[in-house]
Amino acid sequence: MRQIFYELAELTSKGLPFAFGEVVEAKGSTPQKPGAKAIFGADGRSSGTLGGGCLEAEAKRVALECLRNRTRTLLSLHLDSDFGFDDGLICGGTARIFLDGKPEEHASLWQAVAEFLRLRKWGALVTVVDAANPELVGVRWLVELKPESTETQQFEPKSLLRSPENAPELPETILSQIRRAIELRDEVVTSALLASDEAEIFIEPIIPRPHLIIAGAGHIGAALAHLAYLLEFEVTVIDDRPSFANRERLPDADRVLVGDIARTLAQQPVDEDTFIVIVTRGHRHDADVLRAIVNRIDEVAYIGMIGSRRKIKLIYDELMAQGLATPEQLAKVHSPIGIDIGGESVWEIAVSIAAELVWVRNNFRGSLRPLFEKMRALVLKEPSETLMQS
Predict the structure, then answer these.
(1) Domain 211-361, what fold?
(2) 10-22 burial by CB neighbour count: b if 16+ within 10 A, else e?
(3) Three-state secondary-structure class, residue 62
(4) What is the DSSP letter of 96?
């Protein structure tokens, strides 16, 4: 959803009329989680999604009403058998959506958020979604996580921009919750006193995209670069062949680097949000790349290498014999790479790798099993009437 922020900056700079909606809270089963966003243009066009179906249709209707009336509102929708049956949205949950009919009032803030993302800064966007004082509704702050001093690794949230400029300062209680939300990378709805008025506040962490470095710009590398772009990774592709490593073949990559693959990869800055995928054109190149980076396995989120079990064992044995890697380090390498979905084509292999990247990015949440399995067991145990009521 980061792309939405760039669109907000562009639309406000062009003076185009639109409404902005974002899911701030979701309870039970809902089609989208907090942080989902959508832009609804006065011309009927939209971008992003709040969940689709009748939920989004109702949100769009109210959003355009807010646009016409120059208002803001917090919309609550209950997705039960009365709401959503025709569109199949019998989710049984509740979604609360903040709708802003005058987002252009925050034009400077949207520009700042877009720049914030480009510079890979850490922080949060804070929004008043409801308040006893109606004038506070829609007030926003951009907060940056800054070091307390040059001698410490402790970081504290500091208010970077208020919109409007006369907005009250954020209380310390909110700043501490912002830090916690950023640490957990999770949206938070909380309440606080702002200028003596009770207010409900939505805290949305703004963190850099995870950085995916793809060693190899062949068919699989190019396919993975496209999927990773759609999945909101920052993508760097490295290859030593200019005919493969170029913008025509890799239009979605943030950076395309041409040079010795192992040496160029070793020169890249890495951190705990770095993912490295090794898919070069051959066994020797893969071995060279892994040799150059395996000693940093504990500094990054993920290293994966394509190959058969036989090839992988040959490379591992060689690295251990040379004293360049320990068994413990190699055990952390995801190789063979990807999740087994039985795929053999280029795009199927890329999908299996992308699925594993998302799984790791989500802190290994998920069973890696088909979702229908749990429902199948439930269907076989309970009559349909019970299922409809649950």
Answers:
(1) Rossmann fold (3.40.50)
(2) ebbeeeeebbbbb
(3) helix
(4) E
Axis crossing angle, helix 2-14 with helix 107-118, rounded to the nearest 10: 140
Amino acid at 248: E
Can you read off the two tokens belonging to residue 212? 């995916």
Which residues belong to CATH 3.40.50.720 in the chain?
211-361
How far is Cα 193 from Cα 199, in angstroms, rounded to an integer?
6
The candidate with the shortest Cα–Cα distance to 62, out of 71, 37, 134, is: 71
Q: How far apart are CA 217 and CA 285, in angstroms?
A: 12
For residue 97, what is the enclosing H or E element? strand 94-100
Give the number of other Cβ atoms within 10 Å of residue 68's Cβ: 12
Query: Are 212 and 233 a contacting pair, CB within 8 Å?
Result: yes
Global pTM? 0.79
Instruction: List phi, psi (to 5°) of 154.
Output: -80, 135
**Do 216 and 276 form a contact (C-beta atoms < 8 A)?**
no
Closest CA to 265 of 230, 284, 291: 291
Say yes or no to pLDDT of 142 above 60: yes
356 CB-contact burial (10 Å; exposed 0-12 / middle 13-18 / buried 19+): buried
CA–centroid distance for 270 within its chain? 19
Q: What distance in Å separates the CA atoms of residue 142 and residue 216, rounded to the nearest whole number? A: 38
Q: Report pLDDT digits (tens) over 69-124.
A: 999 999 998 876 445 444 444 556 789 999 999 999 999 999 999 999 989 899 99
Is residue 387 pLDDT above 60, yes or no? no
Looking at the chain, how many residues does it have?
A: 390
